[in-house]
Write a structure and sequence with these properties.
Strand order of the largest sheet: 4-3-5-12-6-13
Helix content: 25-40%
Number of strands: 13
Radius of gyration: 20 Å
Strand content: 15-25%
Number of helices: 15
Distance between the termini: 40 Å
Order of helices and strands: HEEEHHEHEHEEEHEHEHEEHHHHEHHH
Shape: globular
């Protein structure tokens, strides 16, 4: 079974972000800054380097990573801790309800790196956050199957077109926000044709189960849970919705000060993803007890998840810009934004991007 996954909320520091993501509680944090010098052999702190060895300087001893309430396999397996602690770095994990909350935490200095869908960084950039796209998530054959527009088992709504005039619940500024707009286009409906209620998945799940939400735009693990245990019907999943997919995002300052550290982090995340995609049943066994989900349900979730990364390319950024332009066209963003303002230079990307990510065109 599935228990309360937690819900971290924080205060928005700009009026623009407050408009997008209401209801946060204030938090603060202190960035730990110091210097460690280590060799690139990853065997520990370098006290007596051999001649010609490369010196890596970290300007922090603490890596702060945000993850969502849906869980994080990288955290569960402890791969970053295994790689970084011998180098004198600690890893601190913070959980958030969804991507918008995670991005706002980054905006106020709570975390350095986090994984979100395509939409949250757009809203964060519009709110003035100094963020950088670090890497994208690779799409696969099952991309989109873990997100859907769903209705309760006994709902009279049978087709997507019938949601016109209905209350539709999702977290504004999340990947679901983009998904619903694109899905509505397919059935010649406008965003204004539905009654939008913004609510994080961890709050909406109970209301949906109780039948007080007529239409819910959500994703795994919540989707798999209500499908398998409560007979929720899918009107349309996100397959072929035309999304660039999710990203790992970092703060500009942290990324520029610690390029070697970011490279190591991305390398370990992608290596973990390679293992996960070859061992999906093992992934389910690891995650199920953490999220308190029955193993068969977690196996469904793991079977349709994407775990590997891809490098930031002009094509990927062009696709991300089209998402931002859509939000502006729909008057959801009050100003047009340029995704290129949240990018590094080609030389800086070369410094943080492992070869396994570069290889994908």
């Amino acid at each position: 079974m599935f228990n309360n996954l937690g819900n971290t909320k924080i205060t928005v520091i700009s009026k623009l972000a407050l408009f997008f993501i209401p209801g946060f509680v204030a938090l603060s944090t202190t960035l730990i800054s110091c210097t460690s010098t280590v060799s690139n052999t990853n065997t520990g702190i370098n006290k007596a380097e051999p001649a010609g060895a490369k010196t890596i300087t970290f300007k922090t001893k603490l890596l702060r990573i945000g993850y969502q309430s849906s869980g994080d396999l990288v955290r569960v397996r402890g791969v970053l801790e295994k790689r970084l602690e011998p180098l004198g770095l600690k890893v601190e994990w913070s959980q958030f309800a969804q991507g918008p909350q995670l991005m706002e935490a980054m905006n106020v200095g709570k975390i350095d790196i986090g994984s979100v869908g395509e939409t949250p960084p757009i809203f964060a950039q519009a709110a003035g956050a100094r963020i950088i796209y670090l890497a994208g998530r690779r799409l696969g054959a099952n991309s989109g199957k873990g997100s859907a527009i769903a209705v309760p088992k006994g709902s009279p709504i049978k087709t997507l077109a019938q949601i016109k005039g209905q209350k539709v619940v999702f977290q504004k500024g999340s990947a679901s926000h983009y998904f619903i707009i694109k899905a509505l286009e397919e059935v010649n409906l406008k965003y204004s044709d539905i009654k939008v209620l913004s609510m994080p998945n961890v709050e909406a799940r109970g209301a949906f189960i109780q039948g007080t939400i007529p239409v819910w735009v959500t994703g795994d693990p919540h989707l798999a849970l209500v499908e398998k245990l409560y007979g929720a019907r899918v009107l349309r999943d996100a397959t072929n919705i035309g999304t660039p997919g999710g990203y790992y995002i970092g703060t500009r300052e942290f990324t520029k000060e610690n390029p070697e550290l970011v490279r190591i982090v991305l390398e370990e995340i992608d290596k973990n993803g390679q293992w996960a995609e070859a061992n999906r049943k093992e992934v389910a066994k690891l995650i199920a007890p953490v999220l308190k989900i029955d193993l068969p349900i977690q196996e469904v979730i793991s079977s349709r998840a994407n775990y590997r990364l891809r490098g930031i390319t002009p094509k990927l950024i062009q696709s991300q810009q089209s998402v931002a332009d859509l939000f502006y066209k729909e008057k959801i963003l009050p100003k047009k934004i340029d995704i290129k303002e949240a990018l590094l230079t080609p030389q800086e990307y070369a410094a943080i991007t492992p070869p396994t990510l570069i290889s994908e065109k």
